[in-house]
Specification:
Layout (H helix, E strand, L loop, with lengths): L1 H14 L23 H7 L11 E5 L5 E5 L5 E4 L3 H6 L6 E2 L15 E2 L6 H6 L4 E4 L4 H7 L5 E3 L6 H12 L2 H25 L7 E7 L3 E5 L4 H5 L9 H8 L4 E4 L4 H4 L3 E6 L3 H11 L2 H4 L2 H4 L3 E5 L7 H15 L2
Parallel strand pairs: 3-4, 3-6, 4-5, 6-7, 8-11, 11-12
Antiparallel strand pairs: 1-2, 8-9, 9-10
Helix pairs in contact: 6-7, 7-14
């Protein structure tokens, strides 16, 4: 769980734009995550609150071990995390979310209110949620959220199958989750089978890199796009990245000089949202260090916007279409 906390913090910081930037860890935690002042809750609570319709509840044990009575069929869900596309894939549009623009599902969140990052207690309370799904295990923030509505923590960086099954249980959408996963697996397997016919070889490797502001280069391992690329039938990680995955590391900052040591047969670059980081990334990609990498010489370097090539369910669906286009160019 400590590892997941680090991934959640870093990916949120890198993946959310503006002051909080985009990009997808084992010994760190989420203590740096802030929360809107507790006074917001007190002030907001002072206003009269309309009655909520009573609904049946069930007990659910969440990612952090809380046992919570949650609605069996929640109607007003706040989701605060990095994989909103998971909910949307199950036909659930959150009433509140830490919104960002540039995802493959921007248009599906037109009616969703931005509860901010860090999460605003006042905004969350005003939405009158009957369930809050919080992609973080920060106990202090959780204790504030649980006063607003039943709250469960959710591991945004678990494997897609595990996430969708958990979300299906939370939302009372088990059949929808099962159907979605079956369809996804069939299409994913068909995509990789087709690519293996004429495009990629049996044991080809791939590596994903992204740049963070301040000329900080990261190799991605157990989170985000690599989870898709390293799925069954897909690419293999190079030994250095394989070791990181086995250790439970989501990503690792490396020196720009060592990028060739991590490069696979194919290289995937996640374009940063931050303009400065994007410029630094472009400069690195044109450098002699990168130009001398075999994958680059073979024109096997591919770029995707980091918020589109994300790890959520709808972004995975998008990648099933976009990856073959990129590899076949």
């Amino acid at each position: 769980m400590v590892q997941a906390k680090r991934i959640s913090l870093m990916l949120t910081v890198i993946a959310l734009t503006g002051a909080l930037l985009a990009a997808c860890g084992k010994e760190a935690n989420n203590k740096a995550v802030e929360v809107a002042p507790a006074s917001e809750v007190v002030e907001a609570t002072a206003s009269p609150e309309p009655k909520k319709e009573e609904s049946a509840t069930k007990m659910y044990k969440d990612w952090s071990g809380h046992e919570v009575a949650i609605p069996t069929n929640p109607k007003r869900v706040i989701f605060h995390g990095e994989v909103t596309g998971d909910l949307l894939a199950l036909g659930v549009t959150p009433v509140g979310n830490n919104k960002s623009t540039g995802t493959v599902y921007d248009d599906l969140l037109a009616s969703t209110e931005d509860v901010g990052f860090p999460i605003s207690m006042e905004k969350s309370l005003a939405l009158q949620p009957d369930l809050i799904i919080f992609s973080n295990s920060d106990a202090a923030i959780y204790e504030k959220l649980i006063k607003i509505a039943p709250t469960v923590t959710y591991d945004s960086f678990a494997l897609l199958d595990d996430r969708m099954k958990a979300l299906g249980e939370i939302l009372g959408k088990q059949e929808e989750a099962k159907t979605w996963l079956q369809s996804y697996h069939e299409d994913r397997d068909a995509m990789w089978a087709e690519l293996r016919k004429n495009v990629i070889k049996e044991n080809e490797t791939a590596t994903v890199f992204t740049m963070y502001p301040g000329n900080r280069l990261f190799v991605m391992a157990g989170a985000g796009l690599p989870q898709f690329l390293y799925e069954e039938g897909g690419f293999k990680p190079v030994d250095q990245v394989k070791k990181l995955i086995e250790e439970g590391t989501g990503f690792l900052e490396i020196s720009t000089e060592s990028i060739a040591d991590y490069a696979g047969d194919r290289i995937f670059i996640l374009n940063p949202v931050d303009a400065g980081a994007a410029g630094e990334s472009d400069t690195l990609m044109k450098s002699d260090i990168v130009s001398s990498i075999p994958a680059v010489k073979n024109n096997y370097m591919y770029k995707f916007d980091i918020l589109k090539a994300s790890g959520d369910a709808l972004s995975r669906r998008w990648m099933l279409e976009e990856l073959p286009k990129a590899l076949n160019k």
